[in-house]
Structures
1.
Amino acid sequence: MLVASTLLGGISGCLSKPPQKTFLSIQTSRIKTATFSPVIEAISPLESTSNVAVKPQVAGTVVQILATAGQPVKAGQVILVLDNVQQSAALDAARSEARKDILNAERYDYLYKQGAVSAKERDRYATMAEQAKDDVRTDAADLGYKFVRAPIDGVIGDLDSVKLGDYVKVGQQITGIVDNSTLWTLMEIPASEASAVKVGQTVKLVSQSTPPVSGEGKVTFVSPYYGITGSSNAPNTLMVKAEFPNLTGKLKTGQFVASEIITGNQSHLAVPVQAVMMQAQQPFVYKVVPLNKVLPKIKASPNASPKTVSELERLPADTPVVVQTKVQLGDLQNNAYPVKSGLKAGDQVAISNTSRLRSGMPVHVKTGAN
């Protein structure tokens, strides 16, 4: 606590008129316990749980494009068609041959039962029918490769690299399909905070877009080892994976987000953000106390003028006075700081006109302030 004598110069001016008319009016708040949720922060990109490249399994010329970039598609839906005249003709011929062989097999089976042909003859035609069926399946598969389909449900990416008449090669990437319904991110957590992270903890995120998009998910994986020098991860960090249901559909793969891992709930004394001021990087508040509690320190201070002391002595003993008080605080949450030291439950602190206050100044506490 800072003694009031350091800033008493302004008091004499306040007391040049009747005190009850010149005291600065302030609102106050009582220090009480609140629940805080410690968090670990990270910035990292989102990835989809399903993100695949679409590549033809056979070469050919593009004769139809049946989808557009950004279009939602279902698994198995045709995206584009390659030239397939030869494969279609082969399938038609195979089907015709199969029908003939199946009829022959059925006829020879009937004749065998009548004793008109041998078992060897019947089996030969039965074998030819089965082979014809296999040929149909093979030709149907060959034709099917000419229809490039979506492998998963999702949204088509860029299709501008392929146009009608283009010749595409086997394995050439023509587009990608991403399913953004569930996203994940890998966060690098400092080793000093890693012990607080557990699978199942809530993770809140906010995108860096305008307007920002928020979401909530869970920690699904905590790496069993730390990053080391020379690896792809930053040295002495822990990789933590979290997954998020993309409920609004506005989050996208590759988007950077600020994430907060909520590591638990803790109870602390809380001071409102309005009460806290800074001086040389030291936070402080103005605590409101009765004059009789602080007057002995003021009188003992070598910096207190006799006139100031005399004016204070003429005031009632219960006159509210503000005292500049150093505090140690945690991280801001919900417009309040957890108090580590400097205040106790029930203390009263100023939350208005704080920039006009000076330590040792008598004040008027507005009715209804708590």
Note: The mean pLDDT is 88.
2.
Amino acid sequence: MKRSGYTRLMAELQGWKSETPAAMFYVDLCHLSAVNRLASPLVADQLVEAVMQRLKSWAGNDGLSARLWSDEFVAIKTMDHAQQAAEEAKSLRDAMTSLTYTGSHGASSLAVSIGVMPLRAANDWPSVVAQAEEACDSAKLRGLNQICFHNTANRVRRAHGGSDAVTEFRRYLDTGALTLQPQPIMDIRAREPRIAKAEFLLRIEREPGVYSPPPPGMIEALELHGLSTELDQFSSQHLLAWLDEHRSLLDRLDNVSLNLSAPSFVDGLFMGKLFDEVRHARLPRNKLCIEITETAAIQHLNVAAEMILDFKTLGCRFSLDDFGSGLCSFGYLHSLPVDEVKIDGTFIRELAQSSVSEKIVRAIYQVARATNKTTVAEFVDEPRKLAILQEIGFDYAQGWLFYPSVPAEKLIELVMVDRRAPIRVDS
């Protein structure tokens, strides 16, 4: 239906002209599926019809309005001055959010996200629609009832946030340029840190022997387009295959870590396949640790708890990454059956300079200890931070003070010789 709606819109746009300034407004109805569930499909259809009528009235005789998909709409409105676009967007938001529906939970107001793209004398309409949609996506990321303008400067900074980033990722995947490189994690409970764990991180081989992290925005683009499972499927299969070839290494490590994105972690199909793959791998218990972000776990608390318990039957451990980024999540640790927490790097970066950061890190440590979780500090890059973490009582640390991510063969060498001294990282 979106394709037919898009085709109709393109036909209308080709015949639309205006002698005055105008802007395109891309509207996304939030939680329309919830209206179907909490009210009924009939109520949802009536709400959509009311949106169409209100959008047409708002756009006026000189404007244009169309439905692209069940919850996505486009409108063009003319105005006296281009500077009016912000006020017009607010008036559109007010018109949309004044619509209400009644379901089993009572009456509720409609919520929307709006992207705005100012129009020019000559317009490449497919690009205009794509840019308006991109602005709407940005609005959705900001929350409910948000308005975002398409911004060329922001687009440059987020050049890898669109479909180009997806194409680039698939090119790397198809050409075999993607790999995982482990970053050693140190046990710092003794005076002399030792390699105890490793987190396998995505890296791209841009030229022979030269590896770098994925470009900024690439992972976010995969999530935005619903394709994060492609990355996580590659990562999980790559790591499990590597571990199958190097089982003896696991005898010398507490565990190794695999990162999963938030969308993949709550994708039942993907997690079902991963469950089968881990089961067939028959790894020693407690040797595979799955890392999920705090945000993903809290947003999907019940699903996360169930999924964690399922994988624990296979002997997997779980780490809660970026913990403390919300600071409202302390109470959730008691409900989540994770084994460790990784302190958000924001606090570790300022640990040696900021007394506030140190107090926050101490508080997070105390909460983790009270819920029987081990603790890991990321971004440890200087001896002063290590000394503070050891004094607090942290279990593990990782960062450039010890090692960056290294080729997998290097990890084997380091672990097998039980090398404790940090390597030198050239700038």
Note: Confidence is low (pLDDT under 50) at residues 153-161, 419-427.
3.
Amino acid sequence: MKFAIISAGEGSRLSQEGVVLPKPLVQLNGVPMIDRLVHIFAQNGAEQVVIIVNNEVALTKEHVLELKKTAEVPLEVVIKTTPSSMHSFYELSPYLKDDKFCLTTVDTIFREDEFAAFIQAFKNSDKDGMMAVTDYVDDEKPLYISTDESLGITGFHDEATPACRYISGGIYCLTPKAIVTLENCMKKGMSRMRNFQRQLVADGLQLKAYPFSKILDVDHASDIIKAEAFLNHED
């Protein structure tokens, strides 16, 4: 199974708030976020990790190319500036067409034991995809997920509905069938990951929600403190 990291954003909100390092290199408990993900993926049996980074951020490019030399698992690095996370996913997709894979953004923070259980559940699943979800909402624009009684995903929504028990955690486990949907989204000129996810449902792919206790994003300087407290079980 392969793993992929979208790390092509500029992290402009962090820099505006005085954070000097680019987002992928922001440290949580002394470890850059991108290094943390690569290590966790290696611990969960990754055959390869594919990473996309922004061409405009030299420090991140240098770091990732050095990481490639010493990482616990083979790394493939794509260096390209893209207009959205969905476009970044498209740049990674040629490496993900032959097997199940897990995709996440670089600033998605979760507990390792929950992630390991999630990956194992997906490996054992016959579904087309499994999405990490949480009922903890600390996002400026959450993507709400409606499900049936067995946690089958029935829709993705910008606003909550009575059927929405969870929001998206930004961790996507998918099969190569999802790449076909992605390619069609690109041909139609679509953008944003949430629109791709809606198209997965429209295309009839069988998706299941997998609940995590909490998933955080690091978008603001204050989120760094929250993330470290969460990982240290201090929250």
Note: The CA atoms of residues 19 and 221 lie 7 Å apart.
